[in-house]
Amino acid sequence: MLTEQPFSGLVVLELASVLAGPSVGQFFAELGATVIKIENTGTRGDVTRQWKARTEDPETDISAYFSCANWGKRSVALDLKKPAALQILHKLVAQADIVVASYKPGDAEKLQVDYKTLSEINPKLLYGHITGYGPENPRAGYDAVIQAESGIMYLNGEPDGLPTKMPVAFVDLFAAHQLKEGLLTALYLREKTGKGQLVQISLLDAALTSLANQGTNYLVAGFEPERAGSEHPNIVPYGTIFTTSDQKQLILAIGDDRQFRNLCLILSAPEIAEDALFSKNSARVKNRLVLNQKLKMLIAGFTLEYLLTEFEKRFVPAGAVRSVSEALSGEAAKALQLRTEQAEKALSGLKTVAFRLSKVGNEVLLPPPHYAEHTREVLLEFAGMDHEGLQNLQAAGIIQ
C-alpha cells in the first residue's frame, strides 16, 4: 500500500484547455502532483467553464464539463501577451517538472512558451504538447472533425444509417492517454539521464492508432470495415443487442466456442451449437444474420434477470444495456466519484467521476477551481513574489 502519492513534490504547469490536456493534468493531480492551471484572461479561462447543460446554473464559472477534468488543480489567470505576465510564467517554469500544452503549431512560439524557449529556462523540463494534426500542420484540431476524418465516425452507426459521432470526445481521451504514456516514459528516462525532453501527440495520430483491429482488418486482411451497429466484424455474437421477454435490452459478447455452447444450453437450444453453420466462430461470422434471428426468438422467451443470473453461473459474457443514470448509480461508479466536503460547501454539492490509479483521500484533492482562484497563492509560493508586488501587478491588470 502506498504511504505517499507517487507524484508528490512534482510540479505540473497546464497550458491547455478543453479535455485532452486537462485530463493529463488531472491524472497527475490525482496522484499527488501540484498542478497549476494557467488560464487566459482574455477568455476568462478554459472555454469549457461555459459549456453547460440546460440544467446548470448559468452564473457559475464551474460547469459539469469543466469539472470532469479539472479536479486537484490551482487556477492562475495570466495574459501571456503581456511581458510582465510572461516573465511570471517563466519563473513558474523554472520550478516546474512538466508542462502540458495544447497550442496550435506556431502559437506557442509566438507567446514564447514553446519547448525550445522553456527548456532553456529549465533543461530538465518535460513538455507534453497536443496538436490537432502534428507539429507541422497549423490546422486547429477538434474532436468531432477528427472522428470524421480518421474513419471512426464512418464506422459508427447502424448499417442503413448515417455516420455517427460518438457521444463522448473519445479522440481527446485517446490523445490524453497517449500523452500520459509518453510523459511517464520521459519521466522515467529523466531519472536516468537528468535531461528533459519534448513529448508530442496529435489528435489525428491518436485516432488513427485507436482504429486497432478495424485498421488492421483493412491493412492486413484487405477487408474494408463498414458500419455494423454494435456488431463485431470478427466475432459473432459479440456486441449484438437482444430484447428479453420483459422488454429489457441485453448485449452478448461471446468470445469463443465454449461460451457459445454454454449460451445455447442456457437458452435450451444446445442443438444450435452442434450445427455446422454455427459451431465455430468463423462459421458464425458467415452466418450471422440467420444466427441472430434464432437468438432473437430464443432470448425473447426469458426475463433479463433470469438470463443474467444464468449467464454469470456459466461464465457467458453478457450485460444489460443501461442508461447513464443507471450506470452511475452502481457501486463501481460510486467508488470513483470524487466528492469532498470542501467541494460541497464551495460548489453547491458538485461531484464528478474520475478514474483513479490509487485511492486519493478526499481531503487531499482540491475541487475544480474557480477562475483565477489561486493566482496570488501560487505566485507567492512558486514565483518569488511578495504581497506588494502582487498588488502592483493586479493594479496594472497583469494578473487577476
Automatic annotation (TrEMBL):
Keywords (A to Z) from UniProt: Transferase
InterPro entries for the chain: CoA-transferase_III_domain (IPR050483), CoA-Trfase_fam_III (IPR003673), CoA-Trfase_III_dom3_sf (IPR044855), CoA-Trfase_III_dom_1_sf (IPR023606)
Q: Name one GO molecular function term.
A: transferase activity
Q: Which Gene3D superfamilies match?
A: Crotonobetainyl-coa:carnitine coa-transferase, domain 1, formyl-coa transferase, domain 3
Which SUPFAM superfamilies does this entry report, sorted A to Z? CoA-transferase family III (CaiB/BaiF)
Q: Which domain of life is it from?
A: Bacteria
Full protein name: CoA transferase
